[in-house]
Specification:
The complex is a heterodimer of chains A (181) and B (165).
Chain A: H1 21-38, H2 46-50, H3 55-58, H4 69-89, H5 111-129, E1 137-139, E2 142-143, H6 144-168
Antiparallel strand pairs in A: 1-2
Chain B: H1 2-22, H2 32-36, H3 41-44, H4 55-73, H5 94-112, H6 115-119, H7 128-152
Helix pairs in contact in B: 1-5, 1-7, 4-5, 4-7
Classes of the chains: A mainly alpha (181), B mainly alpha (165).
Chain lengths: 181, 165
């Protein structure tokens, strides 16, 4: 059973004392965000999605598709870095002029670096998921919590594509298996 | 009552619009409306070479879990599939699936924007908003795959454009 659909039954408002709800919400979001960035609950985890892939395969663009796994990961990194700069500087950062600016030019030799950057950025994100001011605005009206959730799902969106690209290359599932049960 | 209302609002402030916005695609991605736009039934049902699923199959899978969650919310205690494959039902007729999918996504979005619902604890005492966020994550993961399947079929961007600028 996938972990994301457990305990779907909700209690009705008023079943439990409500005075600590805000605190519980803060805690729940702080626990949820790092998992949301890593998958592994509602979809295949990011480590499994990137595992067992050599640099040559990671850099290969399948026929009829626009991006390689490496391209997609470099793009995810671009936006996660932009998000972290917004949060760490405490103010809205300019948006890139064109979407193409967020797709860095990368080649086979960059695979190890791009992968390390991805995990390094996740570690930086973890620190922010636990901060007490998730409800404070940081990107115009968007709060820190919203920004983190938006980019967790931006990451998920492209990890769904990473698996599809691997399928198109005949490089899926990874040696340890995918997400079936 | 006013204290409870204020607490519900605080929960909603923490999760904010983040959850509610995500069911239709989220601000950082194309929307589901865009991703499914202009797809004829024959196109939605076509599986590209070397890929395991058509757009219709992926949408039917996401819809399976949307329906499952909504049934739980309605107190119907739906059966959990024994295996992952049980969450991949045959898509059936495309237009009906498409409409049911968007209707249920909109219903989940409305629930996610309801402070009272979001604040209510689930069976583990975790605000319901957390589970909704996980489901939204599942949806958007597969939304990305729908875009890739359309690219593989040469059916992207949709007539109204993708998410580039």
């Amino acid at each position: 059973m996938p972990a994301f659909c457990q305990n779907a039954r909700m209690t009705l408002p008023g079943d439990r004392p409500s005075d600590d709800r805000s605190q519980r919400a803060q805690l729940a979001l702080a626990r949820l965000l790092p998992k949301l960035f890593r998958g592994g609950q509602a979809f295949v985890g990011v480590e499994a999605s990137l595992s067992g892939l050599d640099a040559g395969t990671a850099a290969r663009v399948p026929d009829a598709l626009p991006h390689s796994v490496l391209d997609l990961l470099a793009h995810v990194n671009w936006w996660n870095r932009w998000m972290l700069e917004t949060i760490e500087m405490g103010q809205a950062q300019p948006y890139p002029k064109h979407a193409a600016d967020t797709w860095p030019e990368v080649g086979e030799a960059d695979w190890g670096r791009v992968k390390n950057e991805f995990y390094g950025l996740l570690a930086r994100i973890d620190a922010h998921a636990a901060r007490p001011d998730l409800a404070s605005p940081v990107n115009h009206e968007e709060t820190i919590g919203e920004l983190l959730a938006d980019f967790a799902l931006h990451t998920a969106h492209h990890f769904g594509q990473i698996v599809t690209v691997r399928q198109a290359l005949g490089a899926w599932p990874p040696p340890a298996g995918g997400d079936t049960w | 009552v006013s204290e409870q209302r204020s607490s519900e609002n605080s929960v909603h402030e923490v999760f904010g619009r983040a959850v509610g916005n995500l069911f239709l695609g989220g601000p950082a991605n194309v929307s589901w409306g865009q991703a499914l736009e202009g797809l004829e039934p024959g196109q939605a049902e076509r599986t590209p070479n070397h890929l395991p699923h058509s757009v219709a199959q992926v949408v039917a899978h996401v819809q399976f879990w949307q329906e499952h969650l909504l049934a739980s919310i309605d107190g119907k205690n739906p059966v959990m599939p024994e295996h992952a494959a049980g969450g991949w039902p045959p898509p059936g007729e495309w237009v009906g699936l498409h409409d049911a999918f968007l209707r249920d996504a909109a219903r989940l979005r409305a629930l996610a924007r309801d402070p009272e619902r979001c604040a209510a604890p689930d069976g583990n005492g975790v605000p319901f908003a957390a589970m909704l966020t996980n489901y939204a994550g599942h949806n958007i993961y597969h939304l990305g795959q729908v875009v890739t399947i359309r690219q593989a079929l040469g059916l992207w961007p949709p007539p109204g454009g993708g998410d580039t600028w």
